[in-house]
Every structure is written in C-alpha cells, then in structure tokens.
Design brief:
By secondary structure, the chain is mainly alpha-helical. The chain is built from six helices and two strands, in the order H-H-H-H-H-E-E-H. A two-stranded antiparallel sheet has the order 1-2. It starts with a helix and ends with a helix.
Length: about 170
C-alpha cells in the first residue's frame, strides 16, 4: 500500500514529471516534497490538498489511503449514434468532450499540446542521441580494425624475432 509520499511519487511518475516540477505546480517551495520523501517525514495537509486540486484525475481516496484505483473513473455521456463514450483520456486526465465547460476543455487541450511538444522534443533528442551513438560505434569499429592490424603486425614481428633467436642458437 505504501505511504502518501510513495503515492505522490507515483503521481509524478504517471505525469512524467519530476518531484521538483510537482512542487512548483502546487506552489510549494523547492524541496518541500523531495525532502519529505527522502527523509520519510510528514508533509502539511495543504500540499496534499494542492495536489488534489492540481491533479483532479487522481483519486483522493487512493492518495490518502492507498485504497481503490489511482485514477478516478471516467464519467462520460453515451453517444447514441456510435455507442462510443464522449470521454477521452491522455496522460491520465479524463475529458468529457460533451461538456459545455469550454475553458476546462481548452485548458486540457493546452496541456496536451504542451505534452505533445515535450514528447516531440524528447523524440528529437533521442533520434540525435541514436545518430551520435551510431557515429561513435562506426568510429570505434574502425579503431578496433586498426588495433587488430597493429596487433597482427606486432605478432608478425614477434614471430620473426623468435625465428631469428632460434637460428642464432
């Protein structure tokens, strides 16, 4: 079941953010949560409340007790034409697309767009890292071949030296 602090870490992991980012999101000073996590100490209730308010897709019961599901169940409106639910989920956030609350939808869409941009940048960095690693591998393969040639030449010289030593005896 773990502790509230463990569950806060799970939220950060699920959101793909660091504890420091979560601290900023809830308005906590740097280190408020990370020190508590590292030291196993308690945190003030206001930080738990701020997490609940800033991350509404997570179950309050789960956060406080560890019981139940981490995410709140989605509540959608049945679409009578297609039978699909008017609910989408990205990054653990549930959105009722049939809702009239446009500002909430726009906020969530904005969050998703930011997450997409973050993931695209990460993908770009990973592709560059892969390219750099492949270049490094090719370089190292050439180095290995060069070293094999040096070893082969040295072995030939060693063999000639041994033969000359045996002739001299």
């Amino acid at each position: 079941m773990g502790t509230i602090l463990n569950r806060i870490e799970q939220i950060a992991h699920s959101e793909g953010i660091k504890i420091a980012t979560l601290e900023r999101a809830i308005g906590a000073s740097k280190g408020v949560l990370s020190r508590a996590i590292n030291n196993g100490t308690d945190i003030q209730f206001k930080w738990i409340q701020a997490i609940v308010e800033n991350y509404p897709s997570y179950s309050e019961e789960w956060l406080l007790t560890g019981n139940g599901s981490m995410l709140k169940p989605s509540v959608g409106v049945n679409n009578t034409i297609s039978g699909d639910r008017n609910v989408g989920s990205v990054g653990g956030h549930y959105v009722n697309i049939a809702s009239n609350n446009m500002s909430e939808q726009n906020r969530i869409i904005s969050e998703y767009e930011k997450e997409i941009q973050r993931l695209l940048k990460l993908d770009e960095k990973l592709q560059q890292t892969e390219k750099d690693l492949l270049t490094r591998i090719k370089f190292l393969e050439r180095e290995i071949e060069s070293l094999k040639e040096v070893i082969s030449s040295k072995n030939e010289l060693l063999d000639m030296y041994k033969k000359n030593q045996q002739k001299g005896k």
